[in-house]
Amino acid sequence: MSMTNEKINKYGNELYEALKANSTIEPITSREANITIEDAYAIQDIFIKRRIKDDGVKIIGKKIGVTSKVVMDMLGVHQPDFGYLLSDMIHSDGDEIDVTNKMIQAKAEGEIAFVLKEDLKGPGITSADVLRATKFVMPCFEIVDSRIQDWKIKVQDTVADNASCGYIVFGGQGVSPFDVDLTTCGLTLECNGELLHTGAGAAALGSPVNAVVWLANTLGKLGVGLKAGEVILSGALCAMVTIKTGDNMTINIGGIGSASVRFV
After folding, report:
1. Rounded to the nearest 5°, which phi and psi values hold at 194?
2. Distance (Å, whole) CA 65 – CA 163
3. What domain range is 193 assigned to?
4. Do the domain assignments include residue 254?
5. What does R_g of the chain's alpha carbons equal in angstroms?
6. Average of pLDDT values for 32-52?
7. What are the two backbone dihedrals, phi and then psi, of residue 80, each rounded to the nearest 5 degrees?
């Protein structure tokens, strides 16, 4: 790491205070030209520890971000990133989310969520291991948000900001990963009845399973495992959609099901 512990603590606490105040901060990368990915994960760790200690939340899973080539090119990186899912982020199919008072600059993505029935700890995890350890997959919205001003993010900014986590909306059904082709399954995202985006499982590192393999092996090198019962968001299958108050959105994923959400 290139940053001092003092600076890492400073930025982690700054992000936490921004979350609580529903406000943004200046990009960390514009203030710290030499910040590394390792520094950014250390800042993320401070941010998450504040959430657990001060807000009483629990870690319920992980999310994988930057899984599409388009986003990798935009951020100038060649690997995904990860963040933590917390117990106060979860919403059910059809819920309303307050984007006016509870979010800063929200956007929506359609994804496939994996719910694990067995632990997965890398390195050495394969696609077969991930499928065997998965209880079911579900359609979900990830409602991302950025504490970084105007989404002017480089990869270090989004990593520090817990991979731009906001809320998760799960569809009402789950299916076995063996009952659907996770590579070719198609996604549609509609807003107020209008088709905005289409995508497919292959958008996430060639397959959402590959994304979970990457996460298990990356975390394994850090001594962290994926645990039975955890939810893993495998990465966006289509472009992000900017949210407006009053929007109704629905995603449908072939062979898996649908999820819907209303923003107020």
Report:
1. -105, 130
2. 7
3. 60-263
4. yes
5. 17
6. 96
7. -70, 180
What pLDDT is stored for residue 7 in this prediction?
97
Collect all residues with Cβ–Cβ distance below 8 Å to 21 and sequence separation of at least 6.
none
Going across the sheet that includes 96-97, the strands are: 96-97, 257-263, 248-253, 186-191, 194-200
Pairing status of strand 186-191 against strand 59-65: unpaired
**Amino acid (one-letter) located at 7:** K
Amino acid in position 94? G
The domain spanning residue 98 has which CATH number? 3.90.850.10
Tens digit of each residue's pLDDT (9 = 90 or more) over 211-234 = 999 999 999 998 889 999 999 999
Is there a domain that residue 23 lies in?
no
Could you identify the residue written with the tokens 């996770």? 182
Q: How many distinct structural domains can be found in the chain? A: 1
Query: Which 3 state secondary structure label does DSSP give 175?
Result: strand
E runs forming strands in 55-160: 59-65, 81-86, 90-92, 96-97, 107-116, 134-144
DSSP, collapsed to helix, strand or coil, labels residue 15 as helix
**Which position has the token pair 């993010």?**
153
Tell me the torsion sign for CA atoms 70, 203, 139, 126.
Answer: negative
Report pLDDT digits (tens) over 3-20.
Answer: 999 999 999 999 999 999
> What does the mean pLDDT of the chain come to?
94
Q: How many whole angstroms separate alpha carbon 169 and alpha carbon 96?
A: 10
Report the share of the chain in percent with pLDDT over 90: 86
